[in-house]
Design brief:
Blueprint (H helix, E strand, L loop, with lengths): L5 H24 L14 H6 L4 E6 L7 H10 L2 E4 L5 H4 L9 H12 L3 E9 L5 H4 L3 H18 L6 E6 L12 H6 L3 H12 L4 E6 L7 H16 L5 E4 L2 E3 L7 H9 L4 E10 L2 H16 L4 E6 L25 H11 L24 H5 L9
Helix pairs in contact: 7-9, 11-12, 12-13
Bound molecules: ligand G2I.
């Protein structure tokens, strides 16, 4: 068992993020800046990196061969997550037989581009392989622990944040009555976090859910769980807010909700953002979410749930930042502007911020300290 406290784990991670951004990351994200001056970045990843954050997309390995898909991913994003390739049905189709081909392909791609990687998801009631669905009691517990151990140890050192447990609560704040809950009882979530911590002590370990876009019964229940885990030393580092939204979303308590979780000492991440709609109403919601994240210092980054409307899981709602031809939509500009306007630097709430509060925090020392004012880093 790892001896680090959750806070120590997060601090180690923050330094690793800093190192990544000061090497390949800046070049890969296309940041353009003049030495000694702050200047608006012209891609999502570069704009997010200016305040120490990532901007990611959910990706499927089978689309990487499509030039528009790959070039948009590589140009705009400095983080990716597997939309499906790291789920239980993909990674352990038969008990004890792991298949990492799709996930490995995505990790290699991310590394070649200097991107961070989010892992999604170790345990979920959906997309379980058939053999899991028939397991009961301790057999299911052992299978879950073995799965977490097998997947998280395979990717140890390569995943920045893991969605350890996904969607375990109902709207009313009760536990979802999945096979996981019914067969293992309330303790299965903390067991999952402890297993993930043992397998990958340096990853940021997240609980991830939807419908938590404000202060409501569901987010209240998750808040109480995180509070309890933190008080008992259960290794949770982060809460993911999926944020599958529509243009008429009421986000009046969105930022306040992120902040109350951050105040518990965990990072918060927007993990599956998409907004059904079009034009200015869609752009407005994207802008609000982005401004809320960058206003919360522990909001490390945002992931959109896909690159192009063409391959979205809700394609008919055209919820993403690029249309079917990879053209930037109005929402794209709203996000870019909000990222560029960020005034708080992500650094965790424990005083061990990777940056110094300025936009230059993630710039390589050599870049900060030398070079004529006209030097461009591309
Ligand atoms: O449902 C939207 C997301 C909600 N939060 C958790 C996410 O993991 C979830 O993602 C979606 C993927 O975007 C879909 O692509 O999860 C779905 C599964 O519940 C994914 O759909 C599945 C289809 O159901 C399968 O038929 C298909 O084989 O995608 C698979 C791979 O294309």
């Amino acid at each position: 068992m790892n001896s680090s406290s959750p806070a120590q784990r997060t601090r180690r991670r923050a330094r690793a993020v800093l190192a990544a951004f000061t090497t390949a990351g800046l070049a890969a994200t296309g940041v353009v800046a003049l030495a000694g001056t702050a200047q608006a970045a012209d891609t999502l990843g570069a704009a997010a990196a200016e305040s120490g954050r990532y901007y990611g997309a959910a990706v499927a390995p089978n689309f990487l061969g499509e030039s528009g898909y790959a070039s948009t991913l590589n140009r705009e994003f400095n983080s990716l997550v597997a939309e499906n390739a790291m789920k239980w049905d993909a990674t352990e189709p038969n008990q004890g037989q792991f298949n990492f081909s799709g996930g490995d392909q995505l990790v290699r791609h991310a590394q070649s581009q200097g991107m961070e990687v989010r892992g999604h998801t170790l345990v979920w009631h959906a997309q379980q392989p058939g053999w899991v669905q028939g397991l009961t009691g301790n057999n299911l517990r052992q299978a879950m622990l073995n799965h977490i151990s097998g997947v998280a140890s395979h990717y140890a050192g390569q995943i920045d944040s893991w969605d350890v447990v996904n969607e375990a609560f109902e709207w009313d704040g009760s536990r979802r009555q999945s096979n996981l809950q019914q067969q293992m009882g309330d303790g299965w979530i903390e067991d999952a976090f402890r297993a993930a911590d043992a397998a990958d002590p340096n990853a940021t370990l997240c609980y991830n859910d939807y419908g938590t876009d404000g202060i409501n019964a569901k987010s209240d229940a998750i808040y109480r769980m995180v509070q309890d885990f933190r008080s008992r030393g259960v290794p949770i580092d982060c809460v993911g807010f999926q944020s599958h939204l529509d243009s008429n979303a009421n986000l009046s308590s969105y930022q306040q909700n992120l902040q109350r979780f951050a105040d518990l000492g965990v990072d918060v991440q927007i993990t599956e953002l998409d907004v059904g709609g079009s034009g200015s109403s869609q752009a407005n919601v994207y802008g609000q979410v982005t401004r809320a994240c960058v206003a919360v210092s522990r909001c490390n980054g945002i992931t959109v749930w896909g690159i192009t409307d063409k391959y979205s899981w809700r394609a008919s709602s055209t919820p993403l930042l690029f249309d079917s031809n990879y053209n930037k939509k109005q929402a794209y500009q709203a996000v870019l502007d909000a990222l560029n306007a960020a005034t708080t630097t992500h650094g965790g709430g424990d005083g061990d911020a990777p940056g110094n509060g300025s936009a230059a925090a993630y710039h390589p020392a050599a870049w900060r300290e030398s070079g004529p004012a006209t030097e461009q880093i591309t």
